[in-house]
Design goal:
Rossmann fold, 4 domains, six-stranded mixed sheet, elongated, binds guanosine-5'-triphosphate, binds magnesium ion, ribosome binding
Length: 416
């Protein structure tokens, strides 16, 4: 089939999935229409506009129109809404609406409220007369010398300031939690990817945590959550589940969630999940990479990201086309052990940890110290009974302390 037709079909499928992500919403009809030249104030050319208008008027059961464009200028939106006598959404406003329905924590709700402010501001600017219709009465209010438009703009500024202040406090709390995590030295692995690619399901499969709620819809996860899991060496790590990315989404929206994505920058390892059963997997992957670049992550973190190809149970006989990518199915369990092994190697490398086997005298404080300061994998008692070979995962700093405290035992440490 013509690649353009195919691409249009995938875009329609994604647009329909976005609409259906809203509780109670369904798609009555879809249309593929060429859009006007970029930069044009209108979304369609004149002929297409008439054609679309006729088709919309012919559908009695529709209540809203979703135009799958990034963002419309407020006057354009207004013009279309007037012409069709229906509410009109673009990707930005539709996604905001989905976020509104899915945001659960206070932080996510406030991030959302902040993301909505530019929209409210542009509607005030584009429609200064609107307030009179809403019963604001006279042009000047109670001798304040401010017009309703100015008043509303000031209220928005105040609201924005308030939201930023509270979010900053929440951000401080998050920083504190992060410090605590570093103090306890739990390595952190962030799982990122296009929305609905299977991040939450994968973390659930890796940690066995049943409280996680994967769902077949875009933006099921709106809050960054942290989940503990064990690697094969018994090293405990924390997985960070993140909000999914989406193509053609204004950066302001991603920015609004940057505080929650801040955790990603502080992780030790990044896992980039791509749903290879999706026909548009390549575009989704490119979107995620460009969004990640926009988050200004440490280059080493970005370069060392582990590439996971998910949902391979839906693609029989799948093998990754590039070396280094891992084929995984969170549902059938394929590739999960390999993923854990690869994660372990990455985590050890990124955090300067090593697996060592040491000759340790039993009966002294050494073994107890190792249990406290490192992860003890195995204790193999030696025939003489007063010593053991102890295999540990240990940070360089802890190993240095161990050597200082117990100099006699140190020379017998061998890299694993
Ligand atoms: N067949 C199959 N389905 C999967 C697999 N992993 C996830 N899914 C399904 O894909 C859908 C989305 O999964 P989620 O884990 O919620 O995806 P997500 O990336 O967390 O999505 P958002 O949080 O919305 O960005 C769900 O219906 C899952 O059951 C897999 O390995 N195989
Ligand atoms: Mg999720």
């Amino acid at each position: 089939m013509d690649p353009c037709v195919l691409a249009a079909e995938w875009q329609v499928a994604e647009a329909a999935a976005l609409v259906r992500a809203l509780p109670g919403w369904s798609v009555a009809r879809t249309l593929v229409v060429p859009s006007a030249a970029p930069g044009s104030r209108l979304v369609f050319g004149k002929g297409n506009f008439q054609d679309v208008t006729e088709k919309i008027k012919g559908c009695q059961d529709i209540t809203s129109v979703f135009l799958n464009v990034e963002k419309m200028a407020p006057p354009t939106k207004k013009e279309l809404e007037t012409a069709w006598a229906l509410r009109v959404f673009d990707r930005f406003t539709l996604v905001l609406h989905i976020f509104r329905c899915n945001a659960r924590t206070r932080e996510a709700r406030m991030q959302l409220a902040l993301a909505e402010i530019p929209l409210l501001r542009s509607s005030v600017n584009s429609d200064p007369g609107q307030q009179y219709q809403q019963g604001w009465g006279s042009r000047y209010i109670m001798g304040s010398g401010e017009s309703p438009t100015e008043l509303r703009a000031r209220a928005l500024r105040d609201r924005e300031l308030r939201l930023r202040r509270v979010l900053e406090r929440l951000r401080d709390k998050r920083r504190l939690m992060r410090k605590e995590r570093v103090r306890r030295e739990f390595p952190v692995v962030s799982v990122v990817g296009y929305t609905n690619c299977g991040k939450t399901t994968l973390i659930q499969a890796l940690t066995g945590e049943s409280a996680l709620q994967p769902r077949d819809q875009p933006f099921a996860t709106l809050d960054v959550t942290v989940h503990a899991g064990l690697l094969p060496s018994r090293l405990r790590i924390l997985y960070v589940d993140t909000i999914g990315f989406l193509s053609q989404l204004p950066h302001s929206l991603i920015h609004a969630f940057s505080a929650t994505l801040e955790d990603v920058a502080y992780s030790d390892v990044l896992v980039h999940v791509t749903d290879v059963s999706h026909p548009d997997a390549e575009l989704q992957k490119a979107t995620v990479l460009s969004t990640l670049r926009g988050l200004h992550l440490p280059p080493a973190l970005l370069e060392s990201a582990l590439e996971v190809h998910s949902k391979v149970d839906l693609v029989p006989g799948y093998t990754p086309p590039c070396s280094g990518a891992l084929a995984v199915s969170a549902i059938s369990g394929r590739g999960l052990d390999e993923l854990k092994a690869a994660l372990e190697a990455s985590v050890l490398r990124a955090t300067g940890r090593q697996v060592l086997t040491m000759h340790v005298r039993l009966g002294g404080p050494q073994l107890g110290w190792l249990y406290k300061e490192a992860v003890v994998q195995q204790v193999q008692e030696l025939p003489e009974g007063d010593a053991a070979h102890v295999t540990v995962v240990i940070t360089q700093a802890a190993y240095g302390r161990f050597r200082k405290l117990f100099p006699i035992d140190a020379p017998s440490a061998l890299p694993h």
